[in-house]
Amino acid sequence: MQEWLEGLHPAILALIKVLLFVVPLLMLVPGLIWWERRLLSWMQDRIGPNRTGTITLKSGKKIKLFGLLQPIADGIKLFFKEDVTPNSIDRLIYFLAPAIALFPAFALGGTVPLGPSYGIYGLLTPIANVDIGVLYFLAISSLGVYGVVLGGYASNNKYSLMGGLRGSAQLISYELAMGVSLACIVMASGSLRLTDILKTQEQALWGAVPWLQNWFIFTPFGLLSAVIFGICMVAETNRVPFDLPEAENEIIAGYHTEYSSMKFAVYFMGEYAAMFVFSGIFATVFVGGYNLLPINWEYLMDSQWVGQFATLMHNLQYWLAPLVFLFKCAVGITFYIWFRATLPRLRYDQLMSLGWKNLLPTAVLNFIVVAIWILVTKIHSTLMGIVAGALAYVLLYFLFKSFLGATRDKPILQKRTLDYMPEPPKPQSNPVTGA
Amino acid sequence: MNLPVTGEQLTFMALAGIAALMAVGVVVLNNPVRSAMCLVVNFFFLAFIYFTLNAQLLGISQILVYTGAIMVLFLFVVMLLNLGGKQIFKERRDFKPILGMVVGVSLFGMISSQLILPMLKVDQIRADNAYGAPQSIGKTLFTNYVWPFEIASVLLLVGIVGSILLAKRRV
Amino acid sequence: MNSDFTPILVLVGVAATVCAAMVTLSWVLGPKKVTPYKQAPYECGVAPLGDARERFPIKFYLVAMLFILFDIEVVFLWSWLTVFKNAPVDYQVFSFWAVMIYMVLWVIGDAYVLRVNAIDWDEATSLAPEKLVDSPAISLTQAPRDAQKLASESNS
Lengths: 435, 171, 156
Known about the structure:
The structure holds 3 protein chains of 3 kinds. Chain A is mainly α. Chain A has helices spanning about 1-5, 10-45, 70-80, 90-105, 120-125, 135-140, 145-155, 160-190, 195-200, 220-235, 250, 260-285, 295-300, 305-340, 350-380, 380-410, 410-420; strands spanning about 55, 60-65, 205, 210-215. Chain A has 2 domains: about 80-345, no CATH class; about 345-410. In chain A, strand 3 and strand 4 form a beta hairpin. In chain A, helix 4 (about 90-105) packs antiparallel against helix 7 (about 145-155). By secondary structure, chain B is an all-alpha fold. Chain B has 2 domains: about 1-90, NADH-ubiquinone/plastoquinone oxidoreductase chain 6, subunit NuoJ (Four Helix Bundle (Hemerythrin (Met), subunit A)); about 135-170. In chain B, helix 2 (about 30-50) runs antiparallel to helix 3. Chain C is mainly α. Chain C has a domain at about 60-155. Chain C has 5 helices and no strands. Chains in contact: A-B, A-C, B-C. At the A-C interface, helix 2, helix 4, helix 8, helix 12 and helix 15 of A face helix 1, helix 3 and helix 4 of C.
C-alpha cells in the first residue's frame, strides 16, 4: 500500500488525499446535524428525531438507526424543493453567495494532520504540509466573510442586509483576536507548520515530566490562548451566543432570509463543516491532535513495569490516530451544542466590546508575556523565565485593568447610560398634521 | 508523457489565465460589487502564482491581507456608497476614454521598459526553495530591515488615528 | 513549481466543484412555479417599502478599516515568530527589543481605539461634540436621535 502510494504521480496522490478529506467531511455533516438535534433535545427534555431510518426486514425484524437518516432524508427533500427566488435580487451574486460560503469550510482543513507524520499517515495527511500551515488556515477562514456579506447584499432584503453587515463586522473583529492568540502558540513552538506544533506538544510536560506530553492547554499561556481561540472559533462560525447575523427574533434569518431549498442548506452545511474543521484545528493546536491521552508511550516503552503495555498503547494509538482525531472533533461539536443550549445571545455592543476590548488586548498581553518568557529562559534559566513570565502577567494585567477602568470612569459616559430614558411623547404635538 | 507543455507550465497558464480573466472582469463589469468579487478571485489566484514561485509567505499574506481584509473594506465602501444594483455607470462620450487609453498605453510602456526588459535577462525563473519561507524572511527583516519595520508600525498607528478621526468626527 | 502546494490547489479545485455542484443541483432539480407573491422580498408579510440597499452606519466601515490595520500589524510579526525561539541569543535580544518597540506602538494604537470609543456601538458615546452631555443645548433625558436633530437645527 505504502509503496504503491509512493509510486503515484504527486497530482494523483494529492487528489487521493483531498478526497480522503472532503468525502468524509461531506458524509459527516448529516451526522452532525442529527447529533445537534438529538443532544439539544435531550438538554431541553425533548426526544428529537428518533424515527427515520427504521428498516423492516422481510422476516419482520426491525433495525433501528435512532433517526440517523433524518438529516439525509431532509437533504434529499431539500434538493427537490422549489428554489424560491425573489425578483429584485442581484442574480449572479445571489447564486454564488452560498457556494462562496461553503468553500472555506471545505478548504479550511488543508493543513491539518489527521494522523502521525510517519508511515502511511505521513503520506496521506495533512493534505499539504506547508511551512505556513497556521497562516493558510487563518487566510481561508477570513474568506468566510464573503458568503455572509454577499448573501446579505444580493438578496435585496433589509433583514438580509442587516444580517450580512452584522456578520461581516463580527467575523473580522474576532479574526483579529484569533490570529494573535495563535501567534503565541506559533512563537512557543517556533514554526507555522501544524505538524511541528504537534511535535512540540509531544515533548515532556513543562520540560520536567518526560512521560507526559506538553499539550499547550496545560501551559498557562496556552490555556489563555485556548480560551481566546475557543471564543473566537464560536464567533467565526456564527454560533450561539454569537449568532447575531441570523438572530431570528430580530432579523428573521439574517443573511439567508431569502434563500430556500438547497441553497439554504448549503449555508447550513457550510456552518456545520466549518464547526467541525475548527474543532479539529483547536484539537491540533491546543490538545495534542491525534494523541488520545497526554502520555508519551514511546518514553514508557523502555520502562520495566509498563513497557509492554506502553508498546501496545503506542501501536494502538498509531493505528487509531484518525479515529481519535475524529473523537476530539466530536467533543468540540458537543461543546458547540452545549453552548447553544446554555448561553443567551449577546447584544451587538457586548459582542463588539468583548472582541475589541477584552479578547484582543488579552491576546496581545499574552503575546508579550510569551516573548519575555522565551527570552529570559534563553538568557538566564528556566526558573527565571517562569518568574519573569508570571511577573509580566501580573504587571501587564494591572496596567490593562487600570487603563480600562480609566476609560470606563469617564463621568460623561456613566451619566449618559443612566439617564438614557426617553420622555413619553407630548399629546398636543401631532407629527402628521403638525397641530 | 510527451506533451508540448509541462505540468508546471500548464498550472501557470491556468492560474494566470484565471487571474487575467478576472482582472478583465474588474474593468468590464458594470456592477461594482461584481467587479469587487472579480478582484477577490484575482487576488486569490495571484497568491497561488506566488506559491508556485516559492514565495510562500508573500502568497499567504496576499490572501490574508488583500483577499481577506482589504476587499471586505472595498465591498463595504461599494455598499456604503450604494452604487450597486440598478445604478449602472453610464459614461458620457467625451475625450476621457481616449485620455485613459493614452495613459494606459504609456503606463504599459513604462512597466515593460522597467520590468519586462530586465526580466528577460533573468535565467532563474523562481527563487530557491527556502527563499520565501517565513524563517528566512524573519531573519532578514530583523537584521537588515529593522528600520522599515519600525517605521511601518508608526505608519500603521497614523493609519489607525486617521481612520478614526475621519469616520468618527461626525456620526 | 513548489510541489508542496499542489495538494492545496487540488483541494481548492475539489472544494469549488463541490460547492458549485450543490448550488446548481438545487436549481436544476427543483420545480419552478413563479408567482408575484413568492417573488417579493420576505419582510414578515408586510409589503416592502423601497429598495433594501440603503445607506448603513459608517461604524461598519470603521471596524473594517481598523481590522485591516491591526491585521497588517500581525502579518509583519508572523515571520519573526518562526525564528525567535530557536535563534542565537544576540539575534533574540535585538529582535526582542525591536518587536517590543513595535508592540508599544501597537498598544498605543489599541489604547487610542479604546479611549475614543471607536468600537462603541452605543450611540451616546462618540467623538461628536454636540452629542456630549456637557453641551448645554441638550438635556440629559433626550434620546440621542433627538440630540442629533437638535444639533442640526442649532447649526442651521
